[in-house]
Amino acid sequence: MILGKVIGRIISNQKSPELTGAKLLIVQKIDQHMTLKEDLYVAIDKVGAGVEDIVLLGEYSTSERCETFQDNMAIVAIVEQLQIQP
Question: How do beta strands 36-45 and 73-78 pair?
């Protein structure tokens, strides 16, 4: 699982048939201190996330969507609160 912040979205008139109806968002990785990292991901939104949301990314099965979708990442949760124990 990867913690990230939604920084944008991808709008496309033409997609692979396996991605029809899928909402694609650009997510930047963050660490436990909410510091943005360089890593960027394109992820299928499964939970209705939006720009500025802190989200949890997970991998999904290639059989669920498209084998050509390189990272196979999906937004699986919107983070409301982050608690880190010392």
Answer: parallel
